[in-house]
Amino acid sequence: MSRPCIVVFRANDVCHLGVVRTLAALDVDVVSVVWSWHGALEFFSDRSRYLGRVVRISNPGSEPHAARADIQKLLVCLAKEYTKQVFLMPTSDSILNFLLASPVLWPLARLANAWDFETMQHLLDKFNLSQKIRSTSINQPITLRCTEDAVRRMRLPFVIKPSLKDSVNSFYAEFNGAKAIYVGNETDRVKQLSTDLWQRYPLIIQEYIKPASNSDDIPVYLATDGEGEIIHVASVEKVFTYPKGFGTAYIVKEQSALEFTIEALKEFVSTTAVRGLIMLEFIRGIDGKSYFIEANPRPWLLVDFQRLRGRNYFYYLDSSKPKVCPEVICANTFYVELTGFCRALELSCSKISHAEIPKFLDSLLGPKRLSTFDESDPGPMEAELASLRGRYGAEFVRNIRNVLDH
């Protein structure tokens, strides 16, 4: 077959759902590679009409050799079916790292995002990427390899975080979902010096840039065409994040395009030769400057949000389709990952009880939309609400429906 084939690895259910829904508008074939793990929640994407061909493999985290063999077997088969090289699209850092640690797979396919395997392997390391852009005019905080000496010498405040993640996200698991450890005073420093953290994980230590306001922690979602021309730039305001400060955003809304980052984005693209999509995190500090913090070179939880806002972030995979698509939601819509939000409230011991969640959502001034909702693909949202009904009761779901704008 001459159509492109995109193999999407379901390591994150919400991201996977957004990816396959976005790919559905392109002239491509989709293969969903899926697996499960201990403690996994229900996969709402199982109910999507856009999953394409589904292939189940061994768990890459607990059975890496078997998973690698399963993927290799699949790619050999696809190479016989398709005349063009197959694209691989990971939906989490863990599966991206697994693919990078599997060079036996590299001749059989290519990555569908950001860079080729060799470049990705180098620049996915946050320290290497910070070194790469030191020659540019892009502002960035002091970033070092994390060693005992670096922890002793780095000026306060600073953060410690993985330079690379492993295939089971061990750092996140150890620190209750936090993506970084904040070191704000000498007591915190002594506490970290009493650990062997840098011997157990590949880490960086990075100067902490305090945002000037809550809206100045700025994720920038960027897409280029195949030649490196920037075609889309968007950002969101993080309305609810868990863990606070260094966690995952479960409720977001769009914020205006960031003129002060545009030249930095162009310089980043030209310096790193990125192609396709990537997320760049900036913080605007109290000094008024914007600082590049890190990059996320894969699809993200908000890839479907961009489609709904009328942006084709996968244009580089099929340039026969337009760069824009029908705009479904308005700019002031709150995009809600409801199951993750509910679980985050439970884990955080929030004063907001599950019974008060509908009232909290209703207090948000603007339309609300669930990440699982799509009029043409109703199965995932219905599965999510059925799951929440079983957890919190029918009245909870009725109240949720009443505050949604669909």
Describe this structure in words.
The protein is α/β, with parallel strands linked by helices and 406 residues long. It has a seven-stranded mixed beta sheet. A five-stranded parallel beta sheet has the order 3-2-1-4-5, sandwiched between helices. A hairpin with a 5-residue loop joins β11 and β12. α13 packs parallel to α15 and α14 packs across α15. The protein starts with a strand and ends with a helix. The model has no long low-confidence stretch (mean pLDDT 93).
Work out the number of β strands: 16
The biggest sheet amounts to:
7 strands, mixed
Q: Output mean pLDDT.
A: 93
Count of individual helical segments: 15
**Name given to the CATH architecture of the domain at 5-113:** 3-Layer(aba) Sandwich
Give the low-confidence spans: none
What percent of the residues sit in helical stretches (DSSP H or I)?
25-40%
CATH topology title of the domain at 5-113: Rossmann fold
Structural class: alpha/beta
CATH class (first level) name of the domain at 5-113: Alpha Beta
> Gyration radius, to the nearest Å?
21 Å
Name the overall outline.
globular
Keywords:
16 strands; 5-stranded parallel beta sheet; Rossmann fold; 7-stranded mixed beta sheet; globular; alpha/beta; 406 residues; 33% helix; Dna Ligase, domain 1
